[in-house]
Structures are given as C-alpha cells and as structure tokens.
C-alpha cells in the first residue's frame, strides 16, 4: 500500500517546516505580503495551517479550525493572489525536496478549495 500524502510530506514535522517556509515566502511576496503582515494572529494562522495540511493529507489528528469559506469570506481574494499563494507553496515544496507526485496531490487539494477562497 502506498504511503499517505501525510507520510510523503514528512508527517507533522515535515509539514511544519513546509508551512514555515510557505509563510516566509508569503511575507516576501509583494502580491500577498500585506495580507500576512497585517494578520491579526499569524502564529494562530500557522498552527491552523499545519493542522489543516496534516488532517487534509491523511494525518492522524483532525483539523479543528474553521472551514475555508468561513475563513476567507469577505477577504475578496483575487485569482492573482490565489495563484501567488499556490506558487509560494510549490516553491516551498521544492525547497523541502518534495517530489512531483506530492506537488500534484497538494495542487489537487488546493484547487478543490478554490471556490471557497476566491472572491467569497
């Protein structure tokens, strides 16, 4: 049996490193930087992102945060911002030496959420 995406991403430790690299990229990305610099509680967002990635990739613990629509409602996130975030995630995956199969699986998850994030 193939390992779960959670295992292939390095479990909680690997996902934590990935999320840290993604947030660092967002804070340096001129397209989305202000959304993260001005975040009310970036550490909470980080913890919830780790939890979301862990649970969504087949990890053992549940995600306890809000659903994607509730989180993003009223933020008026553009298609350009969504693509910038996805690009940051893919770059962080490269930095963490994750493979093409993992990138395709993560992309599929991200794009399945697009309707709950963009312009809601």
From TrEMBL:
<dbReference type="Pfam" id="PF01152">
    <property type="entry name" value="Bac_globin"/>
</dbReference>
<protein>
    <recommendedName>
        <fullName>Globin</fullName>
    </recommendedName>
</protein>
<dbReference type="InterPro" id="IPR019795">
    <property type="entry name" value="Globin_bac-like_CS"/>
</dbReference>
<dbReference type="InterPro" id="IPR001486">
    <property type="entry name" value="Hemoglobin_trunc"/>
</dbReference>
<keyword id="KW-0349">Heme</keyword>
<dbReference type="InterPro" id="IPR012292">
    <property type="entry name" value="Globin/Proto"/>
</dbReference>
<keyword id="KW-0813">Transport</keyword>
<keyword id="KW-0479">Metal-binding</keyword>
<dbReference type="InterPro" id="IPR009050">
    <property type="entry name" value="Globin-like_sf"/>
</dbReference>
<keyword id="KW-0408">Iron</keyword>
């Amino acid at each position: 049996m193939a390992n779960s995406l959670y295992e292939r991403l390095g479990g909680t430790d690997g996902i934590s490193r990935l999320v840290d690299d993604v947030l660092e990229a967002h804070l340096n990305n001129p397209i989305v930087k202000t959304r993260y610099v001005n975040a009310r509680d970036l550490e909470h967002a980080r913890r919830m992102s780790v939890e979301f990635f862990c649970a969504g990739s087949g990890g053992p613990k549940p995600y306890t945060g809000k659903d994607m629509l509730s989180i993003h409602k009223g933020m008026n996130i553009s298609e350009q911002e969504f693509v910038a975030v996805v690009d940051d995630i893919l770059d962080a995956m490269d930095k963490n030496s994750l493979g093409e199969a993992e990138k395709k699986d993560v992309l599929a998850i991200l794009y399945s959420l697009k309707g709950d994030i963009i312009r809601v």
